[in-house]
Amino acid sequence: MGKVRVAGFAVSLDGFGAGPDQSLEQPLGLRGPELHNWFYPTRTFRTMIGQPGGTEGVDDDFARRSMEGFGAFILGRNMFGPVRGDWPDESWKGWWGDDPPYHAPTFILTRHARAPIVMEGGTTFHFVTDGIEAALAQARAAAGDLDVKIGGGVSTVRQYLEAGAIDELHLVMSPVLLGRGEALFAGIDLPGLGYRVTEMVPSDSATHVVLAR
Amino acid sequence: MGKVRVAGFAVSLDGFGAGPDQSLEQPLGLRGPELHNWFYPTRTFRTMIGQPGGTEGVDDDFARRSMEGFGAFILGRNMFGPVRGDWPDESWKGWWGDDPPYHAPTFILTRHARAPIVMEGGTTFHFVTDGIEAALAQARAAAGDLDVKIGGGVSTVRQYLEAGAIDELHLVMSPVLLGRGEALFAGIDLPGLGYRVTEMVPSDSATHVVLAR
Prior knowledge:
The structure is a homodimer.
Chain A: E1 4-12, E2 16-18, H1 43-48, H2 58-65, E3 70-76, H3 77-80, E4 105-109, E5 117-118, E6 124-128, H4 132-143, E7 147-152, H5 154-162, E8 168-174, E9 182-183, E10 196-202, E11 207-212
Parallel strand pairs in A: 1-7, 1-8, 3-4, 3-7, 4-6
Antiparallel strand pairs in A: 2-9, 5-6, 8-11, 10-11
C-alpha cells in the first residue's frame, strides 16, 4: 500500500497556508499567490500550463516530486471551487480547465452530492459526502500501490493531520508574511503526533522541508 | 538615534520561540535548546563561552551581527531568571555568570523593584517597573547612537511588536518542531504593522530571515 502524502504545500513565515478572503477572483486568498513564487518559474509548472522553458534545480526537483507517484488525490471543496452550499448546476468543474493537473481519480470532500465528472487527461472528480475517512478509503483503493496526495487546502490538511492519516509532508517555507489567513499548524502538536524533520533543502526562493513519522 | 532590533531570535517550523514548561533546569523550555542548534557550533558562541575554534560562514556571520552594534538591551523577566513574584533576596543575577554577554546597560522588565546590579565586563542590570515604554526610553538614552536590542523572550518581543516599536527582526527558522510552547507571531498581523521580508539567507542548519519596515 502506498503512503499518504502532502507535497508542494507552501507556508508563509507567519504560518499561513492561504490568504484571507478567498473568492472566485482570489482562489488562494489575498496575497495567497505570493506563497507560490518558488513554483511559477519552474520547468514543472511551465510544462503544466503548456509553456516551454523554466528553471531547473532544487525548486523544480521538489515541484516535480510534488506531483509524481500519486494514484489518487483528495481535495477539500474550497480547493475545488468557490461554490458554497448546494451545487446550483453542473457547470463548475474546478479551477483547472478541461485537463486538470491530477491525471488520476480525485476525491472532493463535500456535504453536497454530485455525479462524478470525467475530465480530459485521466482526471475524474468524485464527490464524497460521508467524511474524510471514507474519502481516504476510496482514494487508497483507487491508488493501489501508488501514494495518495492530500492536495489541500489548509482545512483538509489539518483534518487529516489530526486524524493521524498523513505519513509525510513536504512544505515550502516561503519568505513572505501574510498577516492573516488560514494557519496550517495552529493548535496541532506535530511532534506529539510523531512527526519530525527529515529533510531541509534551501533554494534561492524558499526552504523546502520534509516532515515524516 | 539608533534602531530597535530583535536579532538572532530562533523560531521553530511550527512557530514557537521557546518550548513549554520553562524552569530553572529548562530555561528555554522543553526542547527549547534545539532551536539554537544553528548557534552552538559558531565561533561567535564558542568565543562567548571562552572556547577556541568554531564554525565560520553564514551562521557565524549572523551570530556576530546579532550581538554587534547594541548600546543597550531589554529582557523580559523570565529571560533574566526563573524567579516569579517578589525577589526573595539579591542572589539571582541572571543565567550568565559573572560576565554576561551583554557588555552594556541591560534593562529587565519586572513588576518587582530591585536595585541595579553591576556585573563584570560592562553589563549592568537595571530593573524597570513602569512598563515597556519606560524601559525603551531608558534603553534608548543609554544606547545613544547605537541600537537597542530587544533580547526576548517571546512575550517581550510580542509586546514591543504590538506597540510598533521594533524596526528590524532577524529570525532564525530552525528545522525543528516543538509542538507546544510560546508562539511568536500568533494573532500578530506583521504586514499590517508594516513589516516585509528584506533578506533570506540559508545555511546548512537553518534559514536566516530579516524582517523590516
